[in-house]
Every structure is written in C-alpha cells, then in structure tokens.
Amino acid sequence: MIQIEWDIIEKKLQGKLTLEEERLFDTWRSETSVNDDYFRKIEKFYRENGFVKEVWDEDMEVSWDRLQGRLKRDLRPKRKLGWYWAASGVVACLVLGMVWFMMMRQQMVPERDSRVIMAGSAKAILTLSSGVQVELASDTSEIDEVAAKIVNSGREVSYEIQDSGVVATPVYNKVETPKGGEYCVTLADGTKVYLGAMSSIRFPVQFDGEKRRVEVFGEAYFDVTWDPEHPFVVTVDGMEVEVLGTSFNVRSYADEQNMEVTLVLGKVKVVKEGHSCVLVPNEQAVWNKRTDELSFMPVDIEPFVAWKSGKLNIRNQRLEDILLRLCKWYDIQVFFVNEEAKDVRFYANMDRYGDLNELLKKFELTEQVRFEIEGNVVRVYSLR
C-alpha cells in the first residue's frame, strides 16, 4: 500500500503540487476507495472552513464492519442471541461513554462569551521634531514640519519636501502604532513603510548623506524606492538590513525569541554582531536572541507578509505562536489552561479584519482545543 505525507495533501488543496508529487498523489488516491473518500472529506472541510487539520481517521463504515466481523468470529454460531446482546452491549457502552465524556467536557470548559472582539484598525501617533505628538486618525489633515509638508489621509501619512536645500541639522520624526493599530508611512524618497501593530519607525524628514537610514521596532514591510547611489539601511534592535531598491519584511519584538528578515523582491544584506548573510527573493534571515546565531534559509514568504494585504496565512504553526501574534492585533491577553494546547498545529487562510470569535470557532472545529473569552481575556483548553 502506498504511503503519502500530509504535506502532499495540503499542497494538493492549495494547488501547489509538482508534476512528480501530482503523480504520487493520483496513484495514492486511486489505490483504494477509502483513500478517495478520505480526500473528498478533507477537501470539503477545506472549502467550507478555509483550513485543514492533520488527521488520518479511518472510514467509520469500515471500522464498524471490522467490529462486526470480530464479534462474529469470537462468538459461537449457536449463540446468536448472545452475539446480539454482546454487540448491543458494546454499542450501548460506546454511546454512554460518549455522552458522559461530552457532559463532562461541557462542565469542565465554560461557554465562550459571544461578545464581538474586532480586529485592529488604522491608528498611530506621529511625533514631530519639536516633540509635539499628533494622533493620526481617520480624518484627512496637513501638518507643517521643518522643510516638509506632511499629509495624512487617514490610513497613510506622506512627506513632501518643501525646500530643495539641505537642512543644517537632520530633522527626525517618529510614527508608532499601538496594540491593535497599523499605519502606512511614505517617506520623502517615495519609500513606503507598512507598520504592523505595536511597531514604530524613526526617520529623517529629508534624507541626507550617502545612505538613507531609518530605525524600526516591531514589524514593518518596506517597498524601497530604487536609488543605487544612496543605499537604504534599516536598523532594528542592533541588526542592519541594507538594500538598494526592494521589498521585504522585518519583525523584531521584545517578547519573541527570533528576529526575522523576509525578502520578497530584490536583494538585501543582513548584518548582526559580526555575522552577515545576503538574501535573494523567497529567503529569510533569522537571528536567534537566545543563542546569538544568524541563519538563513528558503521559505514560503506568504505566511510572513500576508498581514500587509489584510490576510492571516497560517501554515502548520503552533497555537502558542499564532496567538502570540494575534495578541498584538486584537488587543487580547491569552492564558493556556493546559500546556499541551500550546503545541497544537493549525493551517488557516482568512481575513485578518474580522471578529476574533469567528477565527477561534474555526480552530474549535478541529475538536482539539476550546476557547473561553471574558472581556479581552482568552483562556485556551486542550481537548486532546
């Protein structure tokens, strides 16, 4: 019998199989009706819910046939009535056991609060060179700054140089997002920076010198304007990312073990404490804060950059890691009642602007975890 890896099934659902993998999948599926029926059920679940879980359940009818066959072999033919009562007893025990388990589980795990917990939105604080802070909200406005005009559109703040001359002393501004916030910043050179939740960028109002330098904390996606004579340098927690013109994502939070640089287009050089590497598209550099090691590898970039397009793309990630990211966007606190719930893995692809309850309900469909929500506190229970 042909064995097949779960990754092959997942890639089939996403339409990403190679020709060789497609042939392997077709052979496995056509080998038995059980395989075909299993995939049909998984495919239906994926289409209805947008994600799948890794399970290898046997077909229920096949399991029942095997149980009946075992009972027939174990019982003598002349004791037909005994066989009937034995089978009935087995079924009754199974049913009563399931009822008892469901009742106990309902008592152990409280019902979830139905209150809507909405996702974050466009909001940020702009700190001018004078120290004055301006709340960037949905209203359109213009703000005066030294040598520049700042235009706020409600989701994006843009810088327009007013004086072509170079200012004597560099003038810096800072844009920072709160928990549950995001914002786009267009710098004076046309570079766009998409800030994630609980993130900030400090930058000169007007770039001067050989390199265009900015400082970032948290998560930011960059679309850098091409300028080979003035490389663009991003500093994040002691790490430097140098580019000419490219698109990439950086992520570094104090409560997360890794710092990540994920390259979408172009080429970047990553430098940290004497270590360095050069990335090409679809590669990621990771600095491990615990071991002080820099590594880089090819990756599927979509889960790391989908947030910029308003999506949650989760692929075989631990629930603890998933919720750690969601905490920053949904402004929630998470507590794991059972440690084993942290290691449950999920796949999902959905809108990141919806109600948190809807997302958690999809996770609960796997019957591996359950969530209790009180206010902005989420408690996680393992059902395994």
UniProtKB/TrEMBL annotation:
This is FecR family protein. Keywords: Membrane, Transmembrane, Transmembrane helix. GO terms for molecular function: sigma factor antagonist activity. The keyword Ribosomal protein does not apply. The keyword Protein biosynthesis does not apply. Residues 311-379 form the Protein FecR C-terminal domain. It comes from the Bacteria. Residues 174-269 form the FecR protein domain. It holds the Pfam family FecR_C. The chain crosses the membrane at residues 81-103. InterPro entries: FecR, FecR_C, Ferrdict_sens_TM.
